[in-house]
């Protein structure tokens, strides 16, 4: 149980990452990914990378610069501009639904304008899911200058597009619906220089 704990990625740049294991029985037609990060990086870095053998950027949450997030589904992406960080935690949730292609992006508990991406697509179920590196091949192919350095916590993945109430609940760390990946019952494996530590502040 990682309640009130964080992954600390200590080095910059780094070859370290965390492997997450989720039981997916079928392709995803809807999903929501949420996480909280704390970093002083100004270079590009990967937060959440979900690759299949057919598509290395099947789901990717990537930060090319401090005031921008890129959210990929099936190798295509949309961009969301955010206020540049003031040295604090940033909480993001991104959801996608296949039937409309609608992407919803929430930053620190607030919704950004919706965008469209990959309508009718299905996200493959056999996946390598990593924190801290961007995969250019299934489970590997890292560019260390896209690695994450800093602290990550509250990582979740659901097989549904969460309602606005649940998006806010994720930001506030309130009770959440059962998830494919849930921070409080995470099945993970650390590879390299990543340390689990108590969160410094709420």
TrEMBL record:
Domain Pentraxin (PTX): 3-202
Cellular location(s): Secreted
GO cellular component, one term: extracellular space
Keyword Calcium listed: yes
Co-factor binding details: Binds 2 calcium ions per subunit.
Pfam families noted in UniProt: Pentaxin
GO terms under biological process: acute-phase response; innate immune response
UniProt GO MF annotations: complement component C1q complex binding; metal ion binding
Predominant place of localization: secreted
Top-level taxonomic group: Eukaryota
Alphabetized UniProt keyword annotations: Acute phase, Calcium, Disulfide bond, Metal-binding, Secreted, Signal
Disulfide bond positions: 34-93
InterPro entries: ConA-like_dom_sf, Pentaxin_CS, Pentraxin_domain, PTX_dom
Subunit structure: Homopentamer. Pentaxin (or pentraxin) have a discoid arrangement of 5 non-covalently bound subunits.
Family affiliation: Belongs to the pentraxin family.
Entries under PANTHER family matching the protein: C-REACTIVE PROTEIN, C-REACTIVE PROTEIN-RELATED
Protein name (database record): Pentraxin family member
Species for this entry: Rhipidura dahli
């Amino acid at each position: 149980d990682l309640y009130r704990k964080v992954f600390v990625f200590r080095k910059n740049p780094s070859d370290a990452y965390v492997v997450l294991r989720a039981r997916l029985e079928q392709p995803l037609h809807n999903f929501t990914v949420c996480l909280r990060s704390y970093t002083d990086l100004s270079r590009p870095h990967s937060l959440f990378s979900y690759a299949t053998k057919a598509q290395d950027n099947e789901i990717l949450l990537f930060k090319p610069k401090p005031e921008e997030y890129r959210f990929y589904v099936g190798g295509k992406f949309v961009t969301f501009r955010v206020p540049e960080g003031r040295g604090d935690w940033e909480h993001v949730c991104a959801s996608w639904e296949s039937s409309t292609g609608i992407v919803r992006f929430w930053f620190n508990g607030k919704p950004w304008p919706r965008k469209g991406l990959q309508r009718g697509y299905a996200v493959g179920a056999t996946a390598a899911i990593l924190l801290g590196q961007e995969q250019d091949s299934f489970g590997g192919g890292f560019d260390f200058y896209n690695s994450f350095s800093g602290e990550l916590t509250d990582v979740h993945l659901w097989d549904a597009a969460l309602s606005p109430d649940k998006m806010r609940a994720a930001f506030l760390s309130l009770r959440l619906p059962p998830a494919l990946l849930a921070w409080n019952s995470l099945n993970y494996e650390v590879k390299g220089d990543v340390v689990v530590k108590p969160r410094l502040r709420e």
